[in-house]
Specification:
Region (Disordered): 20-163
Bound molecules: 2-acetamido-2-deoxy-beta-D-glucopyranose
Strand order of the largest sheet: 7-6-5-18-17-16-15-14
Structural class: alpha+beta
Helix content: 25-40%
Distance between the termini: 148 Å
Shape: globular
Signal peptide: 1-24
Number of strands: 21
Radius of gyration: 54 Å
Biased composition (Basic and acidic residues): 26-60
Keywords: Signal
Pfam families: Root_cap (PF06830)
Largest sheet: 8 strands, antiparallel
Amino acid sequence: MAAVAKWALLLLLGLALLAPAAQAADNKDKDKEKDKEKDRDKDKDKDKDKDKDKDKDKNKNKSPPPPPPYHPPPPPPRVPSPPPPIVSYSPPPVVSSPPPPLPSSPPPPVVSSPPPPVPSSPPPPVVSSPPPPLPQSPPPPVVVSSPPPPLPSSPPVPVPSPPTSNVVYCKNTTGYPTCTAPATCPKKCPQSCHMDCDTCKPVCDCNLPGAVCEDPRFIGGDGNTFYFHGRRDRDFCLLSDVNLHINGHFIGSHVPGARRDPTWVQAIAVQFSGHRLYVGARKTAAWDDDTDRLAIVYDGAPVEVQGVANVRWEAPSSPLSVTRTKAANGVLVELAGVFKITVIAVPITEEDSRVHSYGLRDGDCLAHLDLAFRFYSLTDDVHGVLGQTYRSSYVNRLDVAARMPVMGGERDFAASGLFATDCPVARFAHGRRADALAVASDELMTSVKCSAGLDGVGVVCKK
Ligand SMILES: *[C@@H]1O[C@H](CO)[C@@H](O)[C@H](O)[C@H]1NC(C)=O
């Protein structure tokens, strides 16, 4: 390249030396012409620019016309819009198409089919390590299968018992539509409460008029609380009216050195219209809330009410009914228009015994009744430990301010037997001849034979 460049320079120098002045003049002319041509080009460029401007102007002027063409396009877009509906319609078909796949649910079958292959495939591995896998696999299934059964079976038992024992709710849903939530009985009365639909709060059954609870504490028809101790292993008239008589059988323990023996109501005997009802707590060594210890006998025949809450038994010959308030140890005894008696069988707990020095003995938890009476048709002549408090003329002579006002008069209320209506204050019109009838005590319950009484209305029970 360098050599070629040198030769080019020499040629140029030679030409420059030989070239005449005339050529220089020609060059000047050519330059002028070139300039002219440049000018012409410039003019052309200017014209071109002008044309461009003119085009722009034309475009501006012509813009109105173009719009029409452009507006038409919109329609096309509208045309696509119809398609959308079509698209929307397409979904249904799409939906319809899925069904086919569903019916074709071959997938499931496919899944089901795999298992077979799987078993078939495992065999080989099993075969490879036959002894270990086989023994191990069988045991697990057996163990796994056995646990499930116990689990389901065990939960049911504990689950139902708590709710039935101390959960209450308002059963009158039509009268109290807002009181629907269940409630738990207060600690004071974990076993014996009911829902007061008016206040929508649980109320201890033993805190209302007509209550006979604990050792034994009464709440009279007048609302005042008092104690009536009676005497253990004796019977007393709780209420006696012309058409209704109720005795209570008292049990107790012996506390050496104490001023008196503590007592409880173990059973009641209710007589009305020639019928007799016994409700008692069976003698029990070790208490279990879930084991029913109530004994009920109507006209000499044991009343069997299935151990399920709300199961109801109706007497064949009277408007008497017995309804379980819980699976065990709670019933509502009802005689339409006459009374409702809420009965709960409870034990003396070790804590009760310790706190109150009851002297609880081994082998007897002193099972007894907590009772809540409600009466609907008493006469004003009614009497008895509890009955007298429903008289309009009843004047409470007890010191109600005392911590434990005690009603005396054991002699006035003492009866010769559980179904005897011979207490001095007795008002029961049909009772006199009933004195001869034997007592259906708890101990006799399992081995008694009963038959119609001589007068046709009572019942004679013999061992
Ligand atoms: C329910 O409550 C209403 C309002 O207190 C009352 O009128 C009605 O008799 C009650 N029904 C029952 C079955 O107790």
